[in-house]
Each structure stands twice: as C-alpha cells, then as structure tokens.
User: Fold this.
Amino acid sequence: MLVDRINQVVRKVPTWAVYIVYLIPVPVLLYMGMTGGLGREPIKALEHELGEIALQLLIIGLCITPLRRFTGVNLIKFRRTMGVLAFTYVALHLLVWAVLDVQALDRVWADILKRPYITIGMAAFVLMIPLAVTSNNKSVRALGAVWRKLHLLTYPVAILAGIHFIWLSKGFQLEPMVYMAVILALLALRVPALRKKVAA
Ligand code: HEM
Assistant:
C-alpha cells in the first residue's frame, strides 16, 4: 500500500537530514541580505522571511498528528524536529529584529511593552522556551506524561503567532488570514467530537 511505502521511506530519513535541509535558508538569506538580493530593506526582509518560515514550521508541526490519524502517514519522528526548528527560526527572527533592526535595548523593551503585536509575538516566544529546553531525550524520559501535557502549549503558541501576523499586517490582507484559518482548522481537529466527524 502507498501509505506503508511512504512510512518505510520516512523511517529511513534521519532527523539530522531534516535539520540540515531546513537550516539551509539561514546562510542563504544572510548571504542574499549582504549582497543586495533581499531588496532595499534587507533587514526588514530578513526579519519577515525568518518569521514566515517559523510560522510555517509551527503549522507543519501541528499537521503531523492529524496526518497520521486521518491518512496513516507517520511523520511523528519529525514532530520534535519541527518544533526545535520553529524555535530556532523564531529566536533568529527576534534576534534580527532586536540586534539589527531596533539596535537599542531600551527601545527593544519599550516596543515589547508598547506595541501589542510585538507583545503577542514575545508571549509566543516565551511559551516556546519550556518546550525548547525540554526537547532533549533526557527531559522526554524524565518528564513522561508531563512532557506531553507541556506540549499543549503549542496550541496557544500557534494562535498567538497567527494573531501576531494578523495584527502587524496593515489593512486587510489575505495571507495572515489564511495562516490563521489553517491554524484554527488544525486545532479544531483536536476537538474529539469534530475529530470523529472528519474521520467518519
Ligand atoms: C512564534 C513566534 C513568532 C512568529 C511565528 C512570528 C512570525 C512573524 C511573521 C509571519 C511575520 C510577518 C512576515 C511577513 O510579513 O511576511 C512577523 C513579523 C514581525 N515580527 Fe514576528 N513572529 C514571532 C515572534 C516575534 C517576536 C518574539 C518578535 C519581537 C519581540 C517579533 C517581531 C516581529 C516584527 C518587528 C515583525 C515585522 C513587522 C513589520 O512589518 O515591521 N515576532 N513575525
């Protein structure tokens, strides 16, 4: 069966390969930024690209469980990889904004406190920290069921990230709305009654 074939192939793909492939955009974007490939505002462009990749990784992470439940395709071994990569991209996004864009610690704090879309982005980042810190095998074993409970944090993180994007976009823009709709649909699939309906 096709699903079994896909799962066989997936089993052979090491997680480190996914890390390498997904981290390629970092040096590529930095290089493009330094050589004029990111347009007239390279720092803003870099900030945006990193934020968007982070959001996509969060969404891919949320797709993995429903994908297995509804199709049998098992990418569970990459769920943690996607989470760690999402955190890496959010951290880089934050770093580019603070170090290259704002460039002053007092203004960084002022913006975090004063601009709601930045406060919301920061809240998402802070909620990701316990997940990133416990993403190693030792913590997974030590925390057991608590580790799984802790990962419920991915739901508010995704919602906050979606709101962050909608809030910072000026006027009505389709792209952030589509991201938010996808996030809400993926979270809705976790509601038991809806899950049964979709599976039926
Ligand atoms: C889970 C966390 C986060 C995600 C997924 C995320 C995602 C995004 C996305 C998708 C964009 C828009 C990209 C585009 O226009 O194509 C963006 C922009 C931005 N984000 Fe975040 N972000 C997060 C956290 C943060 C944090 C922690 C900060 C700073 C404290 C931050 C500051 C910004 C800024 C300043 C912009 C650009 C706004 C502008 O257009 O001037 N974000 N982010």
Observations:
- Residues 47-48, 51-52, 54-55, 58, 90, 93-94, 97, 112, 118, 121-122, 124-125, 157, 161, 164-165, 168 surround protoporphyrin IX containing FE (CB under 6 Å).
- The chain has one domain: 2-199.
- The two ends are 21 Å apart (CA to CA).
- Residues 130 and 150 are 8 Å apart (CA to CA).
